[in-house]
Amino acid sequence: MTRSPLTIGPGESVERAAALMNQHRIGGLPVVEDGRLIGIITSRDVRTSHFNRLVADAMSKQVVVVSGECSLWEAKELLEQHGIERLPVVKDGRLVGIVTKSQLYAELGKRIDALTGLNRAEFLQWKASEFLQGGQEIAIIFLDLDDFGAIDKELGHVMGDRILQHAAQVLRSVMEDGIDYLCRYAGDEFAVVTLRPFEEAKKLALRMVTALIEENWPHGLKVTGSAGIAGGRRSCSRPEGDEACTVSDLINMASLASARAKKEKKAVIVAGRVELKEAG
User: Fold this and answer.
1) C-beta pairs of 209-215 under 8 Å, 24+ apart in sequence
2) Which of 36, 49, 73, 246 keeps 20 to 30 A from 262, CA to CA?
3) How far apart are CA 264 and CA 36, in angstroms?
């Protein structure tokens, strides 16, 4: 975000607001009075108002704001939901910064895995936490490609990267938008947070493994994976800030189940379905 952004007072003219926006090449100004955010005036407001009017008469008083602790993805959802270009960042009602759509998308781009185009692990953590805070049941599926190190050693890292890209496409093909959220967790590991009921999530895990087996891979390779699954629901309030720990618990359970599946040469192992009020 931009700290200490340019602001304007409610008693100044629309003409003055327009001049500031043109001078600094920005599309909006937070309106501040006695240090407190009371509105925002944008280039759209300026275009539809007479220059002699006061900012207070032309500004939008219903301002969508975020706190400094707001996640990037939550901010993105707010921007898209409200069709706006910037979000003032406030603390105790006082303006501490502003984040624009271009700034936000630039930061989010850094959190996309360049090789596979999938979100990275931190997206999974945030999305799962969001669902748990909403009281929704989730399942975490953790999938580790089998013997991937041998592909790198025998065919080189370029081929290894192609296999990872291909695996991402295969796994994405069995996902359903709005229900399943796939990410590249690390290396040759993929993870999903899904809103499917637990029994359906287990079927999804099996489909992921099966899709890898049935795919035609380059050089006649056989690429397989081992999956672990864990799920749960938050049924009562947890101390604020514990959601991330809960998600970490689930990811860890699913990861260990995946490692066990690989060791025991099983497609999927279920770590369990837990009542999360007991997990933190």
Assistant:
1) 209/143, 209/267, 209/268, 210/267, 211/170, 211/171, 211/173, 211/174, 212/145, 212/167, 212/170, 212/171, 215/166, 215/170
2) 246
3) 61
Asked whether residue 233 carries a pLDDT value surpassing 80, the answer given is: no
The four Cα atoms 78, 83, 84, 88 give a dihedral, to 10 degrees, of -20
Encoded tokens for 234: 């938050």
Scanning 48-135, the segments in alpha helix (DSSP H) are 55-58, 72-82, 101-109, 121-133
Go through 19-46 and write b for each residue having 16 or more CB atoms within 10 A of its CB, e for each that does not.
Answer: ebbeeeebebbbbbeeeebbbbbbbebb
Amino acid at 178: G
Q: How far apart are alpha carbons 58 and 9 in whole angstroms?
A: 12
SS3 state at 68? coil
Q: Could you read off the pLDDT of 165-195 as tens digits, one per residue?
A: 999 999 999 999 999 999 999 999 999 999 9
Strands (E), the chain: 2-3, 28-33, 36-42, 86-91, 94-100, 119-120, 138-145, 180-186, 189-194, 225-233, 268-275
pLDDT at 22 over 90: yes
- Closest C-alpha among 163, 157, 136, 150 to residue 218: 163
User: Which burial class, exposed, middle or buried, applies to 226 when counting CB atoms under 10 A from its CB (0-12, 13-18, 19+)?
Assistant: buried
What is d(CA 10, CA 223) in angstroms, rounded to the nearest whole number?
64
Angle at 235 between CA 230 and CA 240, to 5 degrees: 95
Burial of 251 (0-12, 13-18, 19+ CB in 10 A): buried
